[in-house]
Design goal:
The chain is built from 13 helices and 26 strands. Helix 7 links the parallel strand 18 and strand 19. It has 5 domains: 81 residues, Nucleotidyltransferase, domain 5 (2-Layer Sandwich); 62 residues, Nucleic acid-binding proteins (OB fold (Dihydrolipoamide Acetyltransferase, E2P)), CATH 2.40.50.140; 85 residues, no CATH class; 112 residues; 90 residues, Hypothetical Protein Ychn, Chain: A (3-Layer(aba) Sandwich). The strands form 6 sheets. Strands 4, 5, 6, 7, 8 and 13 form a 6-stranded antiparallel β-sheet that branches. It is α+β, with helices and mostly antiparallel strands. It is globular and about 80 Å long. Helix 7 runs parallel beside helix 8. The two termini are 49 Å apart.
Length: 480
């Protein structure tokens, strides 16, 4: 069964999805002014570069967005200074602005309306010919849009699909009106949070429960699911003292995603590395050397590795080019089994993923569409001590973890004095704004003793119970 956990903090929303108690996906969204995928903007063409067939568009942000010029998008006649309605396809990355497209799409749970054509099409996962025929003969859709029927539509009646099409079309009409009456680049649509995307894309027939820690989010979810006949689940509001992700053990699972090495049940392991151009995954037999048959050992290790690699790619939201170096196998049938396991691991994945056959060097290549940031971008940042070659936990994430530890102490005993050791690589963050640090760890009602050290990996939190403990660290007390 599937369970969804939604935790909201000051400027952060995190969603964890578990199946049979195993974490399979994790989404993180920070409050930001940057353009996000799915948002729709009124833009102005600032420049066109024919050599790369690309138009650069002002959408009201610091960086101009870019749009490829192609016959498929019916935008080859676009001109400098022209006003355009565009949708964000990819967020900004480094010095690169957001990627946009003039083909607008507005998704719902049962269908997506599009503006580049006026056809009715179906998800590739829908194979029921009778259902397709029924939809084509019964559906009512405006003539100036295209409609793509999504997989979930199979589980509801035509009237519900029709109702959603009209609802989405009304949104599109409102966007066009705002576009016509606006005089400068601006966002016209897309204030929905990741919650709406989760409700739309991640609730399946076997979703048992959604747990949230915000009353506002609970009301949003309740309103969304109340008229959906294909959704039957329990909505639970968590009101515990500790943070929800910490209470359910999800925080530890997220932190574990920083590990490059992941062990396999057979004794082998995989190692995940990042380069500038791609991700590389190495499969090792490790301790799995007890078997007498080397081919069988390789096959078992590779099978378990393939299953784990698919899980880790989805959990970490890795994208682009991914190269997997499996242990050498001679039999083509064994290689086919590995490919099938990988394909099964990506079933239900909303990111388009292409898995290529084994090469002569026993490498498997995966191309996965980029959709949102990977997990590292939310919890890590470059380390100045090693000139950016290494990574350390983001200070904002460190404060979340420290706050969790203080809440644990508070839930057991009402202790007023807390001693914190923190690695001195974070000293500048804290000393520059001590007030914000205390606020972020929610410790205004505590006596905080803060010591910068090099011997601790990140931090330690210790409650001070006895007078002699407080006396020993009194020189580290923070005064605000």
């Amino acid at each position: 069964m599937r369970n969804i956990f939604i935790e909201r903090r000051n400027n952060l929303l995190r969603v964890a999805i578990k199946e049979n108690e195993k974490l399979i996906e994790c989404f993180i969204e920070e409050e930001t002014s940057e353009p996000l995928p799915g948002e729709i903007y009124r833009g102005v063409v600032k420049n066109i570069v024919p050599a790369i067939k690309c138009a650069f568009i002002d959408i009201g942000h610091k960086k101009n967005a870019y749009m490829y010029i192609d016959n498929r998008f019916k935008n080859t006649s676009i001109k400098k200074g022209q006003e355009v309605l565009v949708e964000v396809i990819k967020e900004e990355l480094g010095d690169k602005g957001a990627k946009v497209n003039n083909g607008i799409s507005i998704p719902g749970r049962y269908c997506v309306i599009t503006t580049l054509d006026d056809r009715i099409s179906f998800s590739k996962k829908i194979e029921d010919k009778e259902f397709k025929s029924k939809v084509l003969s019964s559906i009512s859709a405006p003539k100036d849009i295209g409609v793509k029927i999504r997989t979930n539509a199979q589980f509801v009646g035509i009237e519900m699909i029709d109702s959603e099409i009209l609802e989405l079309y009304a949104i599109y009409e409102d966007i066009k009106k705002m576009y016509n009456y606006s005089i400068s680049p601006k966002k016209l649509y897309g204030d929905e949070s990741i919650i709406n995307k989760i409700l739309r894309d991640c609730i399946t027939l076997d979703t048992e429960k959604i747990t949230v820690d915000s009353k506002k989010d609970a009301e949003t979810i309740k309103k969304y699911i109340e008229d959906k006949k294909d959704i039957c689940l329990k909505l639970e509001l968590y009101d515990g003292y500790r943070t929800m992700f910490d209470y359910y053990g999800i925080e530890k699972e997220i932190l574990a995603l920083r590990n490059h090495r992941v062990n396999l049940p057979c004794g082998g392991h995989i190692v995940i590395d990042r380069t500038e151009a791609m991700y590389v995954v190495d499969v090792n037999s490790g301790k799995n050397v007890s078997g007498k048959n080397l081919d069988k050992t390789a096959y078992i290790t590779n099978m378990q590795a393939a299953e784990e690699i698919a899980t880790q790619i989805r959990l970490r939201n890795l994208s682009g080019i991914i190269i997997i170096d499996f242990i050498d196998m001679k039999e083509n049938s064994c290689k086919a089994d590995i490919i099938r396991i990988l394909e099964k691991g990506f079933e239900g994945d909303k990111n388009k993923t292409v898995i290529y056959p084994f090469t002569e060097l026993n490498l498997v290549q995966i191309a996965r569409r980029r959709k949102g940031k990977n997990i590292y971008e939310y919890i890590e940042e470059p380390c100045k001590a090693c000139k950016g070659y290494g990574k350390k936990l983001k200070f904002s994430y460190i404060t979340v973890l420290i706050k969790n530890e203080i809440l644990k102490v508070d839930s057991e005993n009402n202790i007023k004095d807390i001693y914190i050791e923190i690695n001195d690589i974070y000293k500048d963050y804290i000393s520059d704004n001590l007030f914000e640090f205390i606020k972020s760890i929610d410790a205004f009602n505590k006596n905080i003793y803060l010591n910068y050290v090099t011997t601790v990996e990140y931090f330690n939190v210790e409650p001070l119970i006895f007078a002699n403990q407080i006396e020993n660290v009194k020189k580290y007390k923070i005064e605000i």
